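To the team - magnesium ion complex, inputs and output below.
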Amino acid sequence: MAIIENHKTVGIPLCKEPKLSARDVSVFYGEKQAIFNVDLDIGANEVIALIGPSGCGKSTFLRCLNRMNDTIDICRVTGSILLDDNNIYDARVDVVPLRAQVGMVFQKPNPFPKSIYDNVAYGPRIHGLATSRVDLDEIVEKSLQRAGLWGEVKDRLHSPGTGLSGGQQQRLCIARTIAVDPEVILMDEPCSALDPIATAKIEELIDELRENYTIAIVTHSMQQAARVSQRTAYFHLGQVIEVNTTDKVFTTPQHQLTEAYITGRFG
Ligand SMILES: Nc1ncnc2c1ncn2[C@@H]1O[C@H](COP(=O)(O)OP(=O)(O)O)[C@@H](O)[C@H]1O
Ligand SMILES: [Mg+2]
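Output:
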């Protein structure tokens, strides 16, 4: 399966109301190119699923959206990514507030070795979002509520976050992301370490979060993509082969590579 020369993404890669717009984005790890000239919009208040075979560049592309790739020495990104019309790769951009505005949830729940309260309060503290203890308490409560965790932890806010179940830890990480008031949440296979019940909870939560946030989720589960997203982008060897409404991608894929993937001929 070789890279397709001059491939033009099939479907509808652009949106009327983009929150994020990637244009001609390529990514290199040293000499090796991992992403090829991607044009893709992520619409405001949509959930977009990024799917495709392992190693096709889903995580690499996701990390472009909040400059997380900056933390990898050999990684180089070209092209532009606009967040509300501002290029996040502009030299003047400070990545610290950027990564609060475009938050990220990882594959394995990674709470800090701190209390539940302090996990959520950490970001607001370093970003100076609370002016008093009462303020901070309020942010912590609201974030845990939005992450669907408040009821389960309100009586043990000062116990270690690492003592929670895997699914609760992942919701704690979502609460931690929400606490710094993001506009976009990036999720890289957020349920891959969770059991089906914990997964269902996170999926429900993603659907609720869409009201307030724009979400891009990488998933290797096509069922999950179908359940949580409105649009789906199919990646293949670093190219976006096809983007369309999720329904269309799974019922009437336009490109033969998309079809081969969703019918399970490779993965
Ligand atoms: N830190 C890294 N250093 C070098 N190559 C990497 C690094 N991360 C990913 N790659 C390479 O980039 C390509 C895309 O990887 P990745 O974005 O992780 O794919 P996916 O998330 O779709 O599985 C792969 O060939 C992978 O080996
Ligand atoms: Mg990945």
